[in-house]
């Protein structure tokens, strides 16, 4: 993402103009643009003109439109590429489009998008912009999640897990002698299809790619790794051979599905290489929370109500919060979560914002999207009782004040 222009005053009013360059940038824009925001971007509109003779000429023209956003499509809807559409009513008059007309903008790569926030730019939105414009981003891990006859090819970047391709080859059971022959033929076909897909979908030659993970239950990962290495040698592909030797990691997982990537990120082999990356940190933090929940549940809280109570007592050491919560349609809900993050940081805690485009973020969403590891144990029942007593005390004070005024 390129930052083209930015003007935001100390009160949060202003605008930011960004130029998306890839799928991950579309995800950033989806998270940045909220209901009611003003969005200006290029659009193609069919325009009809009537000549003096009465004939109608129709043509498509490119123009810039400014909308008040009412909805956006989730760019994670497509497996192979992220597409972002922003719908809303036109709020700046245009020679070809009436004011108030409903339109949908198809956000394109390398086309500028100007965003003005309805409720101003808060700290979460501004930090998202800063993350998005860091140069040199891109896929940091290529992963092949394998089963017997199946494979999913994934690219993991700071904010996204993108499934670029899937293959499935039927493998008959290894039974009688004839069955054994069919089994071997099917396996050979599977390895060949997998190798071709690997070459197309894993950017093994990229300098920024830190690891190439072969993950599976059982023996499959070793067989796949050995086949890819042998085939690279047979084809004299020195670049692939070097990449596999330097970056190739084989990891056991419990099931041959993409959600098992969480296990991959927790493994010592990969976490040592990726400890500085955002998505590895998310996976390790979630694992730490689950371990705390199992060993000392008074220090592991989740759910908006309970986490906010813990924050009010300055008890949060690490806040886990999903970026999905910041896309709330109600501005007050978003502001509440922004204030929570800022409060935790002010009291010396750490706030980890999980991307819901990673498996760890999706697992956190199943836990209400928010959780906390506390610095000291708190009993939820005791805290709730204290809150109830405080509410009753305030009610009594109000009743006394009303009687005195009366």
How would you sum up this structure, described in words?
By secondary structure, the chain is α+β, with helices and mostly antiparallel strands. The protein is built from 12 helices and 16 strands. It has a 7-stranded antiparallel β-sheet, covered by helices on one side. It has a 5-stranded mixed β-sheet with strand order 10-9-8-11-12, with helices on both faces. The longest helix has 26 residues, at 380-405. The radius of gyration is 27 Å and the shape is flat. The mean pLDDT is 87.
Strand content: 25-35%
Note the overall shape: flat
Sketch the major β-sheet: 7 strands, antiparallel
Mean pLDDT: 87
Discrete helix count: 12
Order of helices and strands: EEHEEEEEHEEEHEHHEHHHEHEHEHEH
Percentage of residues in helical conformation: 25-40%
How many strand units?
A: 16
Poorly predicted runs are none
State Rg. Answer: 27 Å
Distance between the termini: 63 Å
Spatial sequence of strands, sheet with the most strands: 1-2-7-3-4-5-6
Give the class from helix and strand content and strand pairing: alpha+beta
């Amino acid at each position: 993402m390129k930052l083209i222009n930015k003007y935001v005053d100390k009160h949060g009013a202003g605008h930011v103009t960004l130029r998306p360059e890839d799928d991950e940038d579309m995800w950033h824009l989806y998270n940045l643009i909220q209901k009611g925001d003003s969005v200006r971007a290029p659009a193609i509109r069919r325009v009809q003109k009537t000549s003096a003779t009465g004939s109608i000429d129709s043509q498509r023209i490119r123009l810039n439109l400014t909308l008040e956003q009412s909805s956006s499509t989730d760019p994670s809807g497509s497996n192979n590429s992220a597409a972002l559409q922003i719908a809303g009513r036109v709020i700046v008059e245009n020679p070809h489009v009436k004011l108030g007309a409903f339109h949908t903008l198809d956000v394109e790569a390398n086309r500028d998008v100007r965003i003005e926030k309805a409720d101003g730019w808060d700290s979460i939105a501004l930090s998202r912009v800063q993350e998005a414009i860091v140069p040199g981003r891109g896929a940091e891990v290529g992963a092949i999640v394998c089963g017997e006859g199946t494979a999913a090819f994934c690219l993991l970047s700071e904010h996204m897990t993108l499934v670029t391709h899937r293959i499935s080859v039927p493998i008959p059971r290894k039974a009688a002698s004839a069955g054994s022959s069919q089994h071997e033929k099917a396996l050979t076909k599977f390895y060949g299809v997998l190798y071709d897909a690997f070459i197309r979908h894993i950017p093994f030659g990229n300098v920024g790619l830190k690891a190439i993970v072969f993950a599976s239950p059982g023996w499959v990962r070793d067989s796949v790794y050995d086949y890819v290495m042998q085939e690279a040698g047979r084809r004299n592909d020195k670049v692939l051979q070097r990449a596999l030797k330097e970056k190739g990691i084989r990891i056991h997982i419990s099931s041959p599905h993409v959600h098992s990537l969480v296990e991959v990120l927790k493994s010592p082999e990969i976490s040592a290489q990726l400890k500085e990356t955002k998505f590895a940190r998310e996976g390790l933090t979630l694992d730490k929370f689950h371990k705390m929940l199992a060993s000392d549940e008074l220090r592991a809280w989740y759910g908006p109500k309970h986490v906010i109570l813990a924050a009010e007592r300055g008890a949060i050491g690490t806040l886990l919060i999903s970026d999905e919560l910041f896309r709330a349609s109600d501005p007050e809900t978003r502001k509440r979560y922004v204030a929570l993050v800022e409060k935790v940081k002010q009291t010396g805690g750490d706030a980890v914002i999980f991307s819901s485009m990673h498996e760890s973020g999706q697992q956190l969403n199943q836990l209400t999207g928010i959780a906390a590891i506390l610095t000291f144990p708190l009993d939820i029942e005791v805290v709730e009782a204290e809150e109830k007593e405080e509410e009753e005390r305030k009610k009594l004070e109000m009743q006394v004040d009303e009687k005195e005024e009366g």
